Amino acid sequence: MFLQLNINNKKAVVKGLLTQQPFFKPNKHFVSEKTGIRHLSSGTNMPKARIRSWNKQKQEVHMDGFNTIAAISTPPGTGGISCVRMSGEKAFEIASRIFRCGKNFKLLQSHSVTYGKIVNEKNETIDEVLVLKMKKPRTYTREDVVEINCHGGTVVTHKILERVFSEGAVPAQPGEFTKRAFLNGRIDLSQAEAVMDLINSKTKKSEKSAAIQLEGRTGNKIKKIRQRIIFLLSHIGVSIDYPEYEDDKIATSAAVEEAMLIESQLFELVENYETGRILREGLNIAVLGPPNAGKSTFINMVTGEEKAIVTHIPGTTRDVLEVQFSLKGYPIILHDTAGIRQTDDFIEKLGVEKSLALKEKSELIILILDAARGLDEETKNLIDQIKKKETVFVVNKTDMKDGNDIVEYIGLKNVIKGILSNDFGTDEILDAVYSRITKGSVDIGDIAVTNARHKLHIDKALEAVGKAVETGKSNAFLDLMSVDLTTAAEELGKITGESAGEDIIRTIFERFCVGK
After folding, report:
1. Is the pLDDT of residue 361 over 80?
2. Which terminus of the chain has a smaller tally of CB atoms within 10 A, N or C?
3. In sequence order, which residues have a C-beta less than 8 Å from that of residue 17 and are 6 or more positions away?
4. 375 vs 162, which has greater pLDDT?
5. Degrees (nearest 5) of the Cα angle 431, 435, 437?
6. d(C-alpha 15, C-alpha 36), whole Å
7. CA atoms within a 13 Å half-sphere pointing along the CA-CB vector of 426
8. What distance in Å separates the CA atoms of residue 124 and residue 480, rounded to the nearest whole number?
9. 3-state secondary structure of 321
């Protein structure tokens, strides 16, 4: 479909209304007289009212942005090297006053490392260091940055940091370096969150997923969908404000079809969210069962270490033991629990209570039962409590007894029978867990959303676009669709930061460590 609009002698060409390609931007900034909604002009990504609001928010969040901040960027404790990082307009000035290298600091080449000494107010040496000078805008924060690499150790590192503060730098807040990278436009909000995911990644796959998001692939997908929504809003605005141009009006059916395409793209983003979330956060599994069923034996077999004490005495495990391992690249958190039974032992009773509480919190349960013990009342009660939860059922010690009575009571075909002390059945249990994670074959490159916050905003955008589709199908006024489409655009903008408020930004960066 090809539309040519002649409005106030200014031509706006719009292509692809009913195609998979995003619309071309109109060359005019449309303001709907009926809805009051501003639509995009050429060269922007959001309405002008939103741009003004967003710029004001950035100024408020960044009102201390001209300060030069400093922090220790390496972990605390003794080590070979520590790094003190500075960022801001006075970073070079401060460095020139405390760093001695036989040259004028201003003349040092950007992005070069120079050997020298950090000195105190009396010009006495604090430490021999390597200083990295980086001139804006080619830096992490897009500000002038200086990194002082000194000998590791708590005392010397803090002495250098205190020296930097004495010359006018201020302590960096948690995540403030990355916040400045965001506020200065080097990265979007989703990329900023990916920085923390990369730092906290537990497996190669979770590291790869975080790296993909850090590259901006997730953010770019969301931005393109958001642009598509805004382009549709622009066309609706034309139809509302200029009804006299009959040939230029956009049919409601065309707007509905475009909204449905947007809806399908949003759904694709979150289709594999659960797998992505596990990749980012890990899968919490409670290993439950009666005493001496083989829970701790299973934990030790999986990890390859003697993590849990294994004895023939029932009730050995009194507290919850947490262990982590990687299952085909996915982080798994196993919780070895106290055997569930009626007991008069006060400490063991507390352990049983913890086990039952963990049953409700866990995302998956591995219930290990004792074939040699048979189907007694406690075993029946335990099975009945677990049946409604997502569970991998295991009947252990089948070398002593076949355990068919337990299998028949559970009533499932996929009960795993094993001899865990001989590692028989362990692989089948892990295969069942892996199937729960992936629910089919998933390419890590296809996982676009791993963050619960992102999922929340996409779900809200999906709901809003769905309402717009229903509104259009009901043959209501076209401008009614724009209300829900505007909501969808706002929600997606909260992910990348294009329409995120100060509260969202503050909450995200408060989770970062100081120095990042």
Report:
1. no
2. N
3. 1, 3, 23, 235, 250, 254, 258
4. 162
5. 115
6. 25
7. 17
8. 72
9. strand
Q: What share of the chain is helix, strand, coil (3-state, %, to 5)?
A: 45, 20, 35
- Tokens 């085909």: give the residue: 328
- On the question of pLDDT at 1 being above 80, the answer is no
Residue 22 gets which letter from DSSP? P
Task: Identify the DSSP state of 332.
Answer: E
Over residues 180-208, the mean pLDDT reads: 85
- In angstroms, the CA 275 to CA 267 distance is 15
Residue type at position 3: L
Higher per-residue confidence, 345 vs 431 = 431
**CA angle, 197 then 199 then 205, to 5°:** 60
Amino acid of residue 419: I
* Interval 237-251 mean pLDDT: 63
* Cis peptide, bond prior to residue 331, ω within 30 of zero: no
CB atoms within 10 A of CB 441: 5
Counting every residue, how long is the chain?
516
Q: List CB contacts of 126: < 8 A, sequence separation 6 or more.
A: 117, 118, 119, 120, 156, 159, 160, 163
Distance, first Cα to last Cα, the chain: 49
Distances (CA, A) of 375 to 369, 396, 400, 418, 504: 9, 13, 14, 16, 53
- In terms of average pLDDT, the best of 1-5, 52-56, 298-302 is 298-302
Structure tokens at 154: 């708590």
- Rounded Cα distance between 465 and 262, Å, is 8
Which pTM does this prediction carry? Answer: 0.69
Dihedral sign computed on CA atoms, order 293, 294, 299, 302: negative
The mean pLDDT of 99-126, rounded to a whole number, is 94
Instruction: Write the DSSP symbol of residue 421.
Output: G
Q: 223 to each of 109, 229, 490, how far by Cα in Å?
A: 37, 10, 11
Helix (H) or strand (E) holding 241: helix 217-241
Structure tokens at 312: 């023939």
The neighbour count for residue 125, using CB atoms within 10 Å, is: 12
Q: Are strands 330-336 and 112-119 parallel, antiparallel or unpaired?
A: unpaired
CA torsion sign for 58, 61, 63, 65 is: negative
| C-alpha to C-alpha distance for 255 and 232, rounded to whole angstroms | 7
pLDDT at 310: 44
As a whole number of angstroms, the distance between CA 66 and CA 62 comes to 8
> 255: closest CA among 480, 432, 416?
480
Does residue 115 contact residue 101 with C-beta atoms inside 8 Å? yes
**Least confident interval from 283-292, 349-358, 487-496:** 349-358
Closest CA to 235 of 258, 216, 207, 214: 258
- Secondary structure of 244-290 in the HEC alphabet? CCHHHCCCHHHHHHHHHHHHHHHHHHHCCHHHHHHHHHCEEEEEECC
